[in-house]
Amino acid sequence: MARLPRPWRRTHLGSDADRATFRTLHTASLAAPALRAGLTRESAERSIKHLHALLGTPAIALSDTADLLAWDGAGHHHAAQVPALATEALARSGTQVVARRELPCTEGQQGSCPVRAAVISPLAVEDRVVGTLQVFGPYASAGLVRAADEVARWVSGQLELAELDTSRTRLMEAEVRALRAQISPHFVYNSLGAIASFVRTDPDRARELLLEFADFTRYSFRRHGEFTTLAEELRSVERYLLLEQARFGDRLRVTLSVAPEVLSVAVPFLCIQPLVENAVRHGLESAEGGGHIRIVAIDQGQECVIEVEDDGAGEDPEHIRRVLAGDQSLDSVGLGNVDGRLRAVYGDDHGLVVETAPGAGTKVVVRLPKFAPGVHA
Amino acid sequence: MNPDLGAAPGIVALVLVSVATLAIGTYGLRFSRTTSDFMVASRTVRPRMNASAISGEYLSAASFLGVAGLLLTFGADMLWYPVGWTAGYLVLLTLVAAPLRRSGAYTLPDFAEARLDSQAVRRACSLLVVGIGWLYLLPQFQGAGITLASAVGGPTWLGSLVVGSVVLINVISGGMRSITLVQAFQYWLKLTALLVPAAVLLVVWAGDGRPGPATGPAAAGGSLSWSSPLAESGPTGLYLTYSLIVATFLGTMGLPHVVVRFYTNPDGRAARRTTLVVLVLIGIFYMVPPVYGALGRVYAAELAASGRSDVLVLELPRLMLPGLGGDVLTGLVVGGAFAAFLSTSSGLAIAVAGVLSQDVTGRPYAGRRLGGVAAFRVGAVLAVVVPALVSLSPSQVGVATTVGLAFAVSASTFCPLLLLGIWWRGLTAAGALAGLAAGGLGSGLAALLTLFPGWADGWLEVLLRRPAAWSVPLSFLVMVAVSRLTRDRAPLHVRRFMVRLHTPEALDLDRG
Fold first, then answer.
1. Which is one Pfam family of this protein (chain B) (predicted)?
2. Of A255, A302, A373, the CB nearest to B35
């Protein structure tokens, strides 16, 4: 046992073969982030250097099904032949080897050009060919064909992951759409009922409430834009609470305290409202005396902190954990959805924090950075 | 003057301001919230309020003490300092305010990241924010030392130490964290503390039969030279003046604690209106220090001769008005100076600590990572302790000169980045990085060599003392040249980003 190399010793990096593996894996990991954006001209240009290093041939090229996306290495005059090679290779299936006579050099370049042969491997996403990896070298050895094949397969894997990312984003968008459409029928019915009850006794109030209701639905059904400002979101929350208060009267008490400095922060659309709906539901479930909702927004320098708190029945923390983990069978779908979207936009540091216990009320805390790349109202 | 009795009004003012600041810091959050229901719309920060807050945070010890002292010693050419510090907002208003707000950036590194899509430029900007913050904090601590030494007696280092601790406690305990109301109050406090004594002293001066400046050693150059708008004579004077103008006009937009306040504006239009009001408020404030300078030439010429001109504002009331009246006025100016010092250095310390906690102390080291609050506190300690220590070293450089250096560094780095980033599509990450390096290294080295003098003399010393006139064009040139060379690496989203920066919010447009 004592003879085993100690892994924490920095001087010991493994045998030559180990180190070659590490190098290869490292180079591959450098190419990965770009490819995870899908196969575009930009991602091809950013990853091709690393793929080239991985293969070590004089030149390589990436193409989609019709056009050259990026070229790296010597013999650049062959770049013009890439689209034709791609189309030809796609007509057949599997990796193709192209001999010298199909790769004529431009006048005056023949002597110095190292490109004598090409290996063309298709890049496939779920059995659909989306492009080719073309490797150029002095001759097409079996080793080169194998290497090109393996790299193409690895690139295909990354592209499939990119597809996965895209579909996850689409899923999120679909969930927001669902949330928009999810204004509960009960809420609509109950609000209209409450408004109707004021029509005779207090027509002015009824009119005001109806306008609030119109504004509330307009905001919630809004079509464009993934983000809004905290001010807009809170205004919608305010309308929602006004309508609920019209229905519940004194049973629903609300405290809002918002630092004016954070009102201009850009936030994901409908990221607070579901939390408030949750709080109202739980807050009123509890006791005969009604419930108290507290909404607080604090300025903390680079971040703003939003807390939604109720003094209702509380919840088993394990239950909340399952909701946040995405268990669709539970009723607090809004919570899980908000959590997922916050993590998708800001990273895992910015998920929901829920403090709760049976009988102790619930407090949901959201921390949002004032600036995040790509986030603007 | 009996030193014990003389210290009393100063001590009272100091204690009052410190206690008020700490109390507002501790209870202010409760103070700034309402607990009843409210309409969110009525709570957005209005341009006038925000402008007072920006002015409150901006007017520093250099404005409060330094300008009058400089005027006394060097003459009217020093008016370029307040003129430049005000005119900086004119540049900000016309070229930067609205687009910067529309970019959605909270700090300058945020803007760099949003515009250039580059982590390297972001880090360079963070580094510069910390550098400029320290350079700007340094004169604040010096000024505080002078204030305390003059008002209470005792060595200068004690003052730096005491107020450094007050700021540190205040920032770490979460106090004064960009509470708009508190900062707005600070502006009006400072204005009152400077304006009321000035008015009284003018009356006293009129009562004395409006005497002119005494012809003594301080006025050796004669009135003519004192009132000349150029520093020194000949080409060096011309260079120094123009360099100062460049630094102050273009440096304001790069001050970290000013930029974060613009985020509070709801949109670009409000940002412009805010800047306009700031121009007015600061313009009003800067009318007053020259009064002290001019009265100082009549009543306190010996201060300039003995090299203690920075305390002019603090000592003038007592020199002109012995007895209780002088004591009250002294208490007022000491309190104002202390408030100036506290608000500016708290704002700066928060800005610097924020950047440090995001990009330095909040990063994982050896697999461990500090939490948000702990990272911010460690950042705050770093932000305050470093300049406080440097301010203890004996230096002959005046408060306003050091501030001028901070402006020079800011003008040579963030000004090109902001102006080119907002108005030129061609700026690339590599270009920005090269320009920041050229301007930052040039002006930064010059600042260091000036803070620890004795390295150079003649023209070289002049060039180092006021680097802006060469370092700003250098930075612009490098940024443009390198951007042209790396033209193919311009960020892909630049057109979309430009549309967002420059279209008014009222225009219905998909900005995604």
1. SSF
2. A255
Count contacts between A and B (CB, < 8 Å): 90
CA distance A44 to A131: 11
Between residues 185 and 244 of chain A, which touch chain B (CB distance below 8 Å)?
Answer: 224-226, 229, 231, 234-235, 238
Residue of chain A nearest B104, judged by CA positions = A376
Cβ-count burial B200-222 (b if 16+ within 10 Å, e if not): bbeebbeeeeeeebeeeebbeee
pLDDT digits (tens, 9 = 90+) for A162-220: 888 888 777 777 776 666 656 677 788 888 888 888 888 989 989 989 998 998 888 88
Q: Using CB atoms, which residue from B43, B113, B500 is nearest to A263?
A: B43
Residue pointed to by tokens 């443009």: B480
**Residue B485: band (very low, low, confident or very high) from pLDDT cuts 50, 70, 90:** very high
Nearest residue of B to residue A254 by CA position?
A: B37
Residues of chain A with pLDDT under 50: 1-2
pLDDT at B6 over 70: no
Residue B215: pLDDT over 60: no
Both structure tokens of B508: 């219905």
Q: How many CB atoms are located within 10 Å of the residue B53 CB?
A: 28
Give me the domains of chain B, ranges plus CATH numbers. Answer: 3-27+45-362+371-392 (1.20.1730.10)
Instruction: Give the fold, CATH level 3, of A16-169.
Output: Beta-Lactamase (3.30.450)
State which amino acid sits at residue B262. F
Domain A227-369 belongs in CATH node 3.30.565.10: yes
Question: How far is it, in rounded angstroms, from Cα B376 to Cα B371?
Answer: 8
pTM, full prediction: 0.79
Nearest one of B135, B84, B88 to B445, comparing CA atoms: B135
Contact check, Cβ <8 Å, A371/B376: no
* Interface contact A264-B265, CB threshold 8 A: yes
Residue range B423-441, pLDDT digits in tens: 999 999 999 999 999 999 9
pLDDT at B218 over 50: no
- Asked if the Cβ–Cβ distance from A371 to B105 is below 8 Å, we say yes
Residue numbers in A near B376 (CB within 8 A): 301
Distance from C-alpha of B374 to C-alpha of B19, rounded to nearest angstrom:
25
Whole-number Cα distances in Å, B50 to B55, B254, B262, B347, B457: 9, 18, 8, 14, 44
Between positions 108 and 167 of A, the ones with CB within 8 A of B are: none
Residue B368 pairs in a beta bridge with B365
Q: What are phi and psi of A128, to 5 degrees?
A: -105, 125
Q: For position B275, what pLDDT does the model report?
A: 95
Q: Which residues from chain B sit within 8 angstroms of residue A348, using beta carbons?
A: none
| Amino acid symbol at A299 | D
> What is the structure's pLDDT at B417?
96
Express each pLDDT in B115-150 by its tens digit. Answer: 998 899 999 999 999 999 998 888 888 878 877 777
Instruction: Look at residue B176 in the predicted model and tell me its pLDDT.
Output: 46
| Residue A14, pLDDT score | 76
CB contact under 8 A, A260 and B39: no
Optimal mutation site among B31, B39, B106, interface A, most CBs of chain A within 10 A: B106
The phi and psi torsions of B295 (rounded to 5 degrees) equal -65, -35
Q: State residue A183's pLDDT score.
A: 64
Residue B479 and residue B434 in contact, taking contact as beta carbons nearer than 8 Å: yes
Max Cα distance, chain B (Å): 74
* Residue in the structure block whose two tokens are 């989306």: A130
H/E run at residue A210: helix A203-220
Where along chain A do the CATH 3.30.565.10 domains lie? 227-369
Element (H, E) at A64: strand A59-64
